[in-house]
Write a structure and sequence with these properties.
about 450 residues, ten-stranded mixed sheet, eight-stranded parallel β-barrel, about 25% helix, elongated
Length: about 450
């Protein structure tokens, strides 16, 4: 059974289409992405509840969803930002606004930082994790120059990303802790060199680990954090108090098979059993997390209008507008990124109760044969003018949209429904810029962005 917000939000979306200019509507071939703000706030609250100590600082991986209005929702919920590029860093700084230098809840983890990017981070007080020894030497130079000029933010927090070398998960493309990974410094292969560099730079006060995202078991992830924690504790035993920040990354897999997500409380409980030190009241570190996909995936869906139904050989094919330009990972790796699909009629009614089921390929609009977002999927009998809803697409799909076939960027919508008994920390006004809004008894739908093709590349700003 689908989460109730999805049908309500879809109904509001269909009503709102009449308010949009011709060429921007679903009937014109546009695709819509719907985010549920209550679902997003619930995810943020779940992480805070699972990792409840005051020494935990939670950030979200901007790569999962870089859209500025939603980053401001995260900021209002007390969640900071993990940035893997200069563009993401600028988004994070824009989201936190003019609060001092603004970087106390921002972590910059790009594996290929330029000198100018390092300087920007250190000036703004952003926590910075170096990827390798050569980069760390550049950080040392920049840090020295800024100190002489009085421009180094204080306190400066700089770490080194270590690779715990725990091996491959079920998805090789997302396993970042193999012995040949491009990320970080091998904890086993270069253990002595890591100890030496922390001895050389007494200002090196953070350590970072991130074993991968999607495809890793609790046991693998916890083992990587255990190894990293042991190394940080060993350094602090030699030089008491040097490492004050421990960034344990994110990477918790999302359950794409149902409406329910992977249990964050269960993950925290497992990790506490394996690495109790980071949950202890006297933990020597401020502990940072970097979840991304887990926050956003369940909070979003993609909606597209069905144009045609055809038959090719013995395959029934649904032709609609969400394809390889938006669902890149699913199209190119359909075995790894299987997404659930539902069908609604032209009025927004869920067809799952219609009875008759057929097997379909759900095809996208792009000009290549592999543009199939669901293969041989049993679905209700579908008709032109119906709508397909692609679930668990609130993270990574919008952020990996491409200009292939010069198709229009999707409509971006936020669904909100507030209850009178909402917790106090969820009652803050959310900083969304509403271009269109419909107030309803059950909630409101806000159009965040519907750019024309010519301004698509500037949509982040």
């Amino acid at each position: 059974m689908l989460s109730p917000w999805k049908a309500r939000a879809l109904g509001a979306l269909l009503q709102q289409q009449a308010t949009l200019e011709a060429g921007h509507r679903l009937v014109d071939g546009r695709v819509a992405i719907l985010w549920s703000l209550p679902a997003l706030r619930t995810a943020f609250a779940a992480v805070r509840a699972a990792f409840s100590g005051g020494h935990f600082v939670h950030t979200m991986a901007i790569k999962a969803n870089p859209y500025l209005p939603l980053l401001r929702v995260a900021d209002a919920a007390g969640v900071g930002f993990e940035c893997a590029s200069k563009g993401e860093l600028l988004q994070a700084l824009a989201a936190v606004g003019d609060r001092g230098r603004g970087g106390e809840r921002i972590v910059f983890d790009s594996p290929v930082k330029t000198r100018a990017e390092i300087e920007l981070a250190l000036r703004r007080g952003v926590k910075l994790n170096a990827d390798n020894f050569q980069e760390l030497a550049v950080v040392a130079q920049v840090r020295g120059d800024l100190s002489l000029d009085g421009d180094l933010a204080s306190p400066a927090v700089v770490g080194l990303r270590v690779n715990p070398e725990i091996g491959l998960g079920t998805n090789a493309h997302l396993s970042t802790a193999t012995s040949h990974s491009k990320f970080g410094v091998g904890l086993v292969q270069y253990r002595q060199e890591i100890l030496d560099v922390y001895a050389k730079y007494d200002w090196l006060n953070m350590m970072h680990v991130h074993a991968g995202s999607q495809g890793l078991s609790f046991e693998q992830m916890a083992q990587g954090i255990r190894r990293t924690t042991d190394l940080a504790l060993a350094i602090n035993k030699q030089r008491p108090g040097q490492i004050r920040f421990l960034d344990i990354g994110g990477g918790l897999a999302v359950d794409f098979t149902s409406e329910h997500n992977t249990d964050m409380q269960a993950w925290a409980g497992h990790l506490q059993h394996v690495v109790p030190e980071i949950f202890a009241p006297d933990c020597p570190f401020q502990v940072l997390t970097e979840f991304g996909r887990w926050y956003f995936s369940k909070a979003g869906v993609i909606v597209s209008r069905v144009e045609y139904i055809k038959k090719a050989g013995d395959h029934n094919i649904i032709l609609q507008h969400a394809g390889a330009d938006l669902l890149v990972r699913t199209v190119y790796h359909p075995d790894k990124w299987v997404l659930r699909v539902s069908v609604f009629d032209s009025e927004g009614r869920d067809r799952s109760g219609d009875g008759e089921q057929l097997v379909y390929d759900v095809a996208g609009p792009c000009c290549f044969a592999g543009d199939i977002i669901a293969h041989q999927r049993e679905l209700p009998r579908t008709h032109p003018g119906d709508f397909v809803m692609v679930h668990d697409t609130g993270g990574y799909y919008h952020s990996s949209w491409s200009y292939y076939n010069s198709r229009d960027f999707p409509q971006l919508w936020a669904w909100d429904e507030r209850e009178a008994a909402a917790p106090q920390d969820q009652q803050q006004e959310q900083p969304l810029q509403h271009e269109a809004k419909e107030s309803r008894a059950s909630g409101s739908l806000s159009l965040l962005k519907s750019p024309a093709t010519e301004d698509t590349l500037a949509f982040y700003r």
